[in-house]
């Protein structure tokens, strides 16, 4: 059967899609149930919030004990009552079968305790005023010394302090202290009739406080029960919703297992039919990139890849012809480029040799002179003087040796063109050592801005030295017999590139010539003084190092060449 690629794709996608749709429909049903249960959850949470509001008003009522806070508590109780009345029997049966009757009963008990406690608080206020009034009378009686002469003013004042502590703290300790003090009054003055009203009023205060505490405990117990019931109802609804979510998760998991077990199988089979011819083309392409250009794509499938294979084979035929022509052209180009680089290197060598020859004269003359003196007058020399002469001869020999080595290092042709980790600071310093003789001959000053640190690039040492020598040679020739050569090494603002700046104080390059200076055989020098290849070769070598050369020149002021090379770690 001749199927197109898009036919195969539809078949492979349809079956997994059907599995996903079926799982989605079932999941939608469960999600609808969860949505319905959320309404019940809101009712349960609303009841819970109503009870929490009641408990907050309860604390205020117990603290302030006034009509305002009692009314606020009753209002919150009525709010809970309205919420319960608004719930339909079916909903209450659905949410909590036994929770709502118990909650209603507890709410009624709570409201009854609230009213009784408020009534007892009113009695408390009356008795508290009575205790204070009788206490004031007792103080006056003791102060007048009409009765209870055995009682001191300090004792009565301490008794009043214990009375205030009991009214404030209402705990067992303050009750015990006050009760003992009342007993002391009877022991000290058994027949103090003026003390009896105060003692009786305090006893009444004990009784009413005990009643209030009992009612408070009962009220709080009922509040705790309501809070517990609403929390259980809300938690029950959460568990129901969690159960629905678990069922939904299990359904989704089953659908995913089915989808990920059967789905990949159909997708794999479909993909194999689609990708197989493409993989064959890719494999042939890989082998062709490895050099097997004679291979051709097989013509098996009758889909869109058929025309692709035909075009691919036609392209390979043309490519094979072009490759042969390209190989011949590339071989010729490499040969000419090598000749060009070697030619420029020989030109640089000729320039350097002139300076080296002059530089070698000095140490060789010194060696010759010292040796002649030693030969004629060796018997007259002391050991110390003879040692100095011999040491001088050795130093001058080493100097000549170093000059020759520097030149040989540059002139030596390297068979390997491998790129290696190179220190640009060292290469720049070595290149400056090579041209040091020429700088002396031409009376040119050298200004170096080279830090005492390393800047590494990935490059070929011989080619990097040739770039530097070529540009420095041009700078020296541009300054004739005087001027300043400035050489600096650093990095750009990103610290990703090494910059080597070479500046001269020559006559500069006209603006119209700057765009042509890297063209082969272009030169601004008089005939016979330049090949016009130095900068062209330098640019080619810099490009091989993935760098660039920047030029900034002003006629009459000089030129600056900046070599920018990527830094390596």
Task: Tell me what you see in this structure.
It is a single chain. By secondary structure, the chain is α+β, with helices and mostly antiparallel strands. The chain has 4 domains: 5-147 and 200-255; 156-192, no CATH class; 322-413, Orthogonal Bundle (Helix Hairpins), CATH 1.10.287.130; 420-569, Heat Shock Protein 90, CATH 3.30.565.10. The protein has 13 helices and 7 strands. The protein has helices spanning 5-64, 67-86, 89-95, 99-144, 153-169, 172-188, 196-289, 304-377, 383-411, 424-441, 461-478, 511-514, 534-544, and strands at residues 420-423, 444-449, 456-459, 483-491, 497-503, 548-554, 558-566. The strands form 2 sheets. A 5-stranded mixed sheet has the order 2-4-5-7-6. Strands 1-3 form a two-stranded antiparallel sheet. Helix 4 packs antiparallel against helix 5 (153-169) and helix 8 (304-377) packs antiparallel against helix 9 (383-411). It is elongated.
**Mean pLDDT level:** 78
Strand content: 5-15%
**Number of H/I helices:** 13
Give the termini distance in whole angstroms.
59 Å
List the helices and strands and how they pair.
Blueprint: H1 5-64, H2 67-86, H3 89-95, H4 99-144, H5 153-169, H6 172-188, H7 196-289, H8 304-377, H9 383-411, E1 420-423, H10 424-441, E2 444-449, E3 456-459, H11 461-478, E4 483-491, E5 497-503, H12 511-514, H13 534-544, E6 548-554, E7 558-566
Parallel strand pairs: 2-4
Antiparallel strand pairs: 1-3, 4-5, 5-7, 6-7
Report a brief summary of the structure.
The chain has 569 residues and is an alpha+beta fold. It has helices at 5-64, 67-86, 89-95, 99-144, 153-169, 172-188, 196-289, 304-377, 383-411, 424-441, 461-478, 511-514, 534-544, and strands at 420-423, 444-449, 456-459, 483-491, 497-503, 548-554, 558-566.
